[in-house]
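Field log, afternoon session.

UNIT: design team B
ACTIVITY: writing a sequence onto a fixed backbone
BACKBONE:
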């Protein structure tokens, strides 16, 4: 009897040990998928070199990986210090731009996925003299009500000069990009810049205003990087525009820069998934003829 009991006990111990080993080497599928799910939910930063296949918007890479948030129509990296995005990326083409959702039914709202201490609020913008400027424009995301509403998260906003910029030249540039997207697939990166200016003493200083109790930074400039896919490869345009009133008849070419120069201004790394030779060639270009063929709309 004692022998039988001892054998049974030994068998139980062996079975338990085998079960533990199987758990270690073959974890539950839900546990294995957790990191990807966290990335998709915006709760964990992706590996710059690996996650592009997780989201088609990010085909050409992540310029930076701070506080990533994934939406239906765009991906965002959030600057907790300045309470605005580092960058926002969109994928646009003729099909993706279709839809009838109206911004009239949408409202600016706090992004509760951002920790409380790093959020901006509507109160920060109240009576500041600056618009809540979309980085991923509402006009790009009419496909559904949810997609439109997600562009109104304050994490997608940065303070912009109003009538002569956000509701003027900048809006016209956004419209022109939608026209381009009607012809070919585009990947569009947008974000703020804080650039130095020369002072009376001859020194160069980075100075910018902050608004509200949240101390939301007011960028001195904004950028766009637009990648257009074509049969022959990829064409790139980089723009840097001052956050101020811009005359309607100002040529867009005045704001074109190389991606190399923009990377130095922003500290971001664009198109890092391309091979080094292709990336270097594209980043040196400043005035591809294609981008000058569509006139800027005049409202």
């Amino acid at each position: 009897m004692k022998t039988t009991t001892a054998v049974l006990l030994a068998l139980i111990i062996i079975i338990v040990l085998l079960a533990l080993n199987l758990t270690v080497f073959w974890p539950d599928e839900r546990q294995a998928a957790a990191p990807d799910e966290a990335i998709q939910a915006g709760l964990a930063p992706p590996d710059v070199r690996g996650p592009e296949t997780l989201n088609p918007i990010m085909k050409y890479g992540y310029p930076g990986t701070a506080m990533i948030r994934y939406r239906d129509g765009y991906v965002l990296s959030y600057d907790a210090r300045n309470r605005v995005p580092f960058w926002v990326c969109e994928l646009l083409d003729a099909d993706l731009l279709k839809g009838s959702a109206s911004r009239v039914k949408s409202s600016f709202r706090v992004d509760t996925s951002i920790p409380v201490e790093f959020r901006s609020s509507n109160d920060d913008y109240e009576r500041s003299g600056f618009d809540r400027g979309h980085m991923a424009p509402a006009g790009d995301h009419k496909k559904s009500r949810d997609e439109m509403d997600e562009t109104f998260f304050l994490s997608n906003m940065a303070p912009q000069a109003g009538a002569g910029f956000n509701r003027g030249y900048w809006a016209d540039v956004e419209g022109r990009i939608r026209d381009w997207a009607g012809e070919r697939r585009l990947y569009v990166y947008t974000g703020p810049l804080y650039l130095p200016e020369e002072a009376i003493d001859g020194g160069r200083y980075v100075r910018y205003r902050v608004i509200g109790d949240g101390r939301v930074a007011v960028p001195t400039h904004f950028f766009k990087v637009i990648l257009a896919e074509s049969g022959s490869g990829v064409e790139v345009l980089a723009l840097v525009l001052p956050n101020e009133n811009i005359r309607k008849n100002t040529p867009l070419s005045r704001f074109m820069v190389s991606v190399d120069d923009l990377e130095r201004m922003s500290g971001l790394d664009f198109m890092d998934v391309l091979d080094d030779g292709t990336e270097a060639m594209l980043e040196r270009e400043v005035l591809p003829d294609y981008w000058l063929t569509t006139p800027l709309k005049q409202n």
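LOG NOTE: The helical segments are 2-25, 29-40, 122-125, 145-150, 162-181, 259-266, 276-284.
NEXT ACTIVITY: expression trials, pending approval
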